[in-house]
Amino acid sequence: PKQSEKNIFVDSADNNFQFDQITNIKSIVNQRYFDGAFIVALPDYKRFSEFNNFFQIGLIYALKEQGIENDIEFIMQDKINSIQIGDNFLIGPVSKESVRKIDGSINRNKALFLNQADSNLFIALSKYPQINTLNKYLDSKEITRIGIISDAEGDKDSEKIFKESWFNGSRDVITIQSNSNVDSDSSIKNFLDVSESITRFERIDKASFSELEFVPRTRDDIKQIIIFPKESNRLYELASLVRFNYGLDYEVIALTSELEGKIDENEIRLHNISLIDHTYENRFGYDLNKSRSFSLGYDSMLIAYAISNQIRGEIRGLLGIYTIDKDFIEVNSYIN
Fold first, then answer.
1. Bridging pattern class, strands 89-91 and 334-335
2. What is the pLDDT of residues 240-279, one digit of tens each?
3. Model's pTM, two decimal places?
4. For the chain, which end, N or C, has fewer CB atoms within 10 Å of the first or last residue's CB respectively?
């Protein structure tokens, strides 16, 4: 294979939060430095048949759409052999255990793992790209106070990690505890300060002889309300309670890393929820399991081609926006 010490750097785009395009990877570099094959390590077909199917569809789709001409070979992730990799490039493995076994044993420029690694470069389906985006988005708006609906059945781990990264001495969070077994409507009404407004009106109404028009005022010290759901129907319920209790002007933002199955697009539009996730502008849309597997397949091919051809900087895929450095890959999800 032809090799070069030259790295190609790609400048960042202006839109850092919404999906607008996939990077045309071959337009970045005129000369292809990597002539080897891409060896893709897959998990067990019987246990992970759906993932394997849609992951491979995404990967092959990227090959064709991007015009990548390198050979590709599929192997099982428990059959990885560093000698076999040789002058080729490894995509995978997917499982944590398989990554742990070979982490650091393959040259950093010769592999892209698909689960978290300490030594090698990796991308993964996880909560961290979504938390990255949430932090950056709030920073871009210079937000110092937010509201969080902390649901008993929600994603407590993501909520905890976000709060640890959010607090820096000058930031604040107003948290409301919610539980499906208690009256969430009253809790959110109190959270938005609607109850006090209604009580004041009732006192005035009783003392007045004329009919009064009344729309309760919600609290104005926050503009964003964050939800960390584990179940989509619960997300719709909580968002609807915010809107029903006159919280029409709040920006309701939800992280989606723990959601599975299909998201109801009508519910999302009805309650005007911003979802932090991969883009749904792909062949499988809001069908999360299929969509994520397809997007991971597509992006793994895109990023592997970039690394193997020594491209650095920003690459836009389906899962998110990647910043490739020689020592790490930062991933930020999209806001849909």
1. unpaired
2. 999 988 889 999 999 999 999 999 999 999 999 999 999 9
3. 0.88
4. N
**Three-state SS at 97:** helix
**306-316 CB burial, b ≥16 within 10 A, e <16:** bbbbbbebbbb
Q: Which two tokens stand for residue 286?
A: 């809001």
* CA-angle at 28, arms to 24 and 31, nearest 5°: 120
Instruction: State the amino acid at position 253 in one-letter form.
Output: I
Q: Which two tokens stand for residue 46?
A: 């019987």
pLDDT digits (tens, 9 = 90+) for 141-178: 999 999 999 999 999 999 999 999 998 878 999 999 99
**Residue 212 pLDDT level (bands cut at 50, 70, 90):** very low
Distances (CA, A) of 219 to 138, 195, 329: 19, 11, 40
User: What is the Cα–Cα distance from 245 to 243, expressed in whole angstroms?
Assistant: 5
Q: How far apart are CA 224 and CA 184, in angstroms?
A: 19
The residues with which 140 forms a beta bridge, in sequence order, are none
pLDDT confidence band for 31 (50 / 70 / 90): low
